Amino acid sequence: xxxxxNIEDLSLAxxxxxxxxxxxxxxxxxxxxxxxxxxxxxxxxxLRCVAGFIRPLAGRVTFGGADADEARSAGLHFLGHQDGLKxxxxxxDELAFQVRWTGGDxxxxxxxxxxxxxEALLGLEVRKLSAGQRRRLALARLIASPRSLWLxxxxxxxxxxxxxxxxxxxxxDHVRRGGLILAAVHDPLPIKARTLEIAG
Amino acid sequence: MTGVGVLFRRxxxxxxxxxxxxxxxxxxYAAVATLLPLAVGAEPERLKAVxxxxxxxxxxxxxxxxxERLFERDYEDGALDLLALGATGLETICFIKCxxxxxxNGAPLALAAPIAAIALGxxxxxxxxxxxxxxxxGLGFAFTGGVGAALSLGxxxxxxxxxxxxxxxxxxxxxxxxxxxxxxxxGLDGRTGLSFLAAYxxxxxxxxxxxxxxxxxxxxx
Lengths: 200, 221
Description:
The structure holds 2 protein chains of 2 kinds. By secondary structure, chain A is of the alpha/beta class. Chain A is built from 6 helices and 8 strands. Chain A has helices at 43-50, 68-74, 91-101, 106-116, 131-144, 161-176, and strands at residues 4-14, 17-28, 31-36, 58-62, 76-79, 149-153, 180-184, 194-197. In chain A, a hairpin with a 2-residue loop joins strand 1 and strand 2 (17-28). In chain A, helix 3 packs parallel to helix 5 (131-144). By secondary structure, chain B is an all-alpha fold. Chain B has one domain (3-220). Chain B has helices at residues 3-16, 21-40, 44-64, 67-77, 79-84, 90-119, 127-151, 158-185, 191-220. The chains are: A alpha/beta, B mainly alpha. The A-B interface holds A 48, 51-55, 72-74, 76-78, 80-89, 93, 96-98, 100-103 and B 1, 3, 6-7, 10, 13-14, 17-19, 73-74, 76-87, 220-221.
């Protein structure tokens, strides 16, 4: 369980381009933070840095005293622009894999299928799903595998109004139970969230 | 089922599933074996002399075919991000992927190798030796090939780059494997070549995943 996310004096660069310097922020348990900024400001890079994929130029990311490797392998979900789903496999197989890989079990799988309304999609190959349906399938692992920190990159983009509302309710529930959310967005999050702007 | 188990099952299903899988490698292997008599001449004695070596060369080339898919698709569709954030280390993930690659491509090719070699004139008595050397060599191809596939992640024309990186690494198993078969065919003791082949392949199994994991981490950054 991650109690807090601390970003301390962080500077990030991609290649020769400096994205931002001396960024400091804290996301506490039970809090959602909307990461805003212009295209290319470094929102996605910050999320990838927190996830441990990108090494910062300076500064560090800590997880409220938890071991960073352990926090990353068992305490956070990262949902980027790409969903990691395999087009040639059925939604059922991919859902089961993603949920089990991230630590979820059979019981939670059944529950999340109902919550996200995925029953009708399960027999279809992933390649035959729309962007919104794929996103719902990818969101399932967030709910079925209990990890406290959600790193989301434009999570609402492919969802229709009804699904946005539903996902908003799920995010609100996660925060209410002490979870943390750091989401890169262009549109406001549908829940109460503090804004952290990346100046770029 | 553990995380390792579900990943292994998924990798096998992806390797066997749509997009060619072993059938593509087998068809390529058969095509190379069929073209050979057209290139070197159809005289049985000439073909017999090159049968085992040619079968091994075709095996190495056919093993290259599916390497581009080993990591590249996971890298492009975000699956590598997901895998990297699981409880299983990237080294183990790379090991599982290569093992599945070997079972789905290397093993069928090893079973087909005697057919091609015998069709080209090799002694049918060599069948067990051909299968054993091809299985061992295929293991080496999968794990050294995995290193090339991981190193080429994110590059343009990754397939060509993989071939350039990997073909020199394929040279030892081709030399040891074909050499062992040549020795068996001549009535000599081929166990030395077989031992070197096994040592090379096992070293690739032991060390390759660490190199692949480092290359994957670099690509993800």
